[in-house]
Amino acid sequence: MARLAAAIAMLIAFAQPALAEDGYDLWLRYRPLPADRASALAARAGAVETDEASDPTIAAAVAELQRALPSMTGGGPEQQGGVILIGTTRSRRIAALGLEPAGEDGFIIRDVTANGRRLLVIAGNRPVGALYGAFHFLRLVQQGPLPAKLDIAEKPRVKLRLLNHWDNLDRTVERGYSGQSIWDWWKLPTATDPRYTDYARANASLGINGAVLNNVNAKPDSLTPQWIAKAAKVADVLRPYGIRVYLSARWSAPVELKQTATADPLDPAVAAWWRAKADEIYRAIPDFGGFLVKANSEGQPGPQDYKRSHAEGANMLAAAVRPHGGIVMWRAFVYSEVDPDDRAKQAYSEFKPLDGKFADNVIVQVKNGAIDFQPREPFHPLFGAMPKTPLMLEVQITKEYLGFATHLAYLATMWAEVLEADTFARGKGSTVAKVIDGSLEGHALTGMAGVANIGSDRNWSGSIFDQANWYAFGRLAWNPDLTPVEIAREWAQQTFTPDPGFVDPTVAMMLESRQAVVDYMTPMGLAHLMATGHHYGPGPWVGDLARPEWNPTYYHRADKGGIGFDRTRSGSDAVAQYARPVARRFADRRTVGDDFLLWFHHVGWDERMASGRTLWEEMVARYDRGVAAVEGMNRRWAMLGPLIDKERADQIASFLVIQKEEAIWWRDASLAYFGSVSGRKLPAGVRPPAHDLQYYEAIRHPYAPGHH
Ligand code: BDP
């Protein structure tokens, strides 16, 4: 009997977490380290100590270390070596060390000797700083051998680091390609899911500190007591991880809920309703972050329905949440079918005159480009143009326009391109990064939002490589100056293996991947050429939709003579919305560069490009280059896949095949169409499209995911 009990105890002691590599563990895999690294780690960090275990955030940090370290070192409690001391500067032991972490969310990781004992200290001013420090430490451990002495101090550059979930109350996800919403609204608030905690851990590991739970195309129901209780339950689970909950608010909610006669922001009854609603939400969620609003955009109601401005609308809501320390994120993604002006100009035209008119707890949320999350857009002209208003950057992590969840497109390169772009708002060096981190104009309220790619799929993001985009978003929101290559490297090291034989070529593939998508979908500054509705696959021929600016033909303007949207003075003059040096560069055919050529210029098919080719030949070459890049990725993965686990390797391999087929589809359909419009023949030796144009035009995909 005793022997049996002992055997069971042994089994329990040696039970390892299941090692299935289905992607669920993301970059927090904590797999056993090779023996030398394991013993070095145990000697350094065999046990965890804290004086603040009663704090739920510190407890979460300790739990993470205690889950990770034994798993990586392979050691049970008897193998303890060095000690990690974790906590805040409020703890006496940490205060005695004289460490000074920076800011509210910053942390320090340092090897110290105290009373003859070697300690690895992870400290923040607040518990969440310590939590971020713990995750940072685990990131380093998973990346390879630790340096002999750690002395790290970090703090985030941006205050609001938020995911925007476009999740509907029926659990569908607008533009979501990873299954259903992770929020199982139907079962909330009584039942939660362990996934919520793992979601929180993953976000906290990156420093993401907020989540807007519901779609910007919001329903009024999400503001009813029933749904507030559900959101409150989610907030309870996320809170220890430093993540606040926000809600998208539908402008006309009080009217639709039959509680006010109007949604006019200047009507006192409307303001009173929102104040009471905010009070009610804060009673349920004391640290509620605030509201995100899509107003007067794509059919959504808004203050303009009552002849009031965006600022009047935003300020009314801001007053409602102000007593509780809440904020309003007001989206600048607006364009109107009754405005005949270039869609790319409309957000600037509406918002620029409102600079200085927003309350100080309002931040205006601006997409990276002026149209709509296309594979490549020049930076949005509002960046740098509203110095008196805090602006937050909105990027789309879910790949609505870059191949859904199957195409490999690493988006850090796209986001870095925007963050590094120089607005010249205050002379050279006025990058978008400095606009959104507040340093250019001295704003304290700063932010970056990413439209989440997270769903109920076992691997969270629909594909393994799409996890890298969630990861990269969080890392860039923490520090917009991190480079795509360093982010890709640390992600791949943690997600797969630190082996450079795998990591180096995988990172190289990631870095090329977004340009490949640009090349096979929308080369040379083209944009918005996708099929209608679901946005899956090519539709450059579409020109019969009700609203002019929904038609691909509106964007490419191809005819017998040439292609491209003239946004110079001879056209829509959108270039004039940029600061002078930028406007000059974009307006000049010699300086605009190939990447944005057709975004700003209408160019003759036979005009010569820098390469010496005609425009038509250059476009053909780009489409071919895009397809070739994906073929190359398939070949490379055939070598790399065997270096990792079969389950993930096989899924990646099969998705690369889908990407190849669809790259060819995009290329063939686009060339068939543009060839027919231009009347130009394919250059000698170029493979003709597999089918005629009618074939591509007839393709329908009524059941593509993510549609709304
Ligand atoms: C577009 C999406 C649409 C969103 C909209 C937005 O197609 O589903 O509602 O952006 O950002 O790209 O509001």
UniProtKB/TrEMBL annotation:
Keywords: Carbohydrate metabolism, Glycosidase, Hydrolase, Polysaccharide degradation, Signal, Xylan degradation. Residues 462-685 form the Glycosyl hydrolase family 67 C-terminal domain. It catalyses: Hydrolysis of (1->2)-alpha-D-(4-O-methyl)glucuronosyl links in the main chain of hardwood xylans. The active site is at residues 298, 372, 400. InterPro entries: A-glucoronidase_C_sf (IPR037054), GH (IPR017853), Glyco_hydro_67_aGlcAse (IPR011395), Glyco_hydro_67_aGlcAse_N (IPR005154), Glyco_hydro_67_C (IPR011099), Glyco_hydro_67_cat (IPR011100), Hex-like_dom2 (IPR029018). It is an enzyme of class 3 (hydrolase). Its EC number is 3.2.1.131. The keyword Phosphoprotein does not apply. It comes from the Bacteria. GO terms for cellular component: extracellular region. Residues 142-460 form the Glycosyl hydrolase family 67 catalytic domain. Pfam families: Glyco_hydro_67C (PF07477), Glyco_hydro_67M (PF07488), Glyco_hydro_67N (PF03648). GO terms for biological process: glucuronoxylan catabolic process. Residues 26-137 form the Alpha glucuronidase N-terminal domain. GO terms for molecular function: alpha-glucuronidase activity; xylan alpha-1,2-glucuronosidase activity. Residues 1-20 form the signal peptide. PANTHER family: ALPHA-GLUCURONIDASE A. Homodimer. Belongs to the glycosyl hydrolase 67 family. This is Xylan alpha-1,2-glucuronidase. It comes from Sphingomonas spermidinifaciens. The lineage of its organism: Bacteria, Pseudomonadati, Pseudomonadota, Alphaproteobacteria, Sphingomonadales.
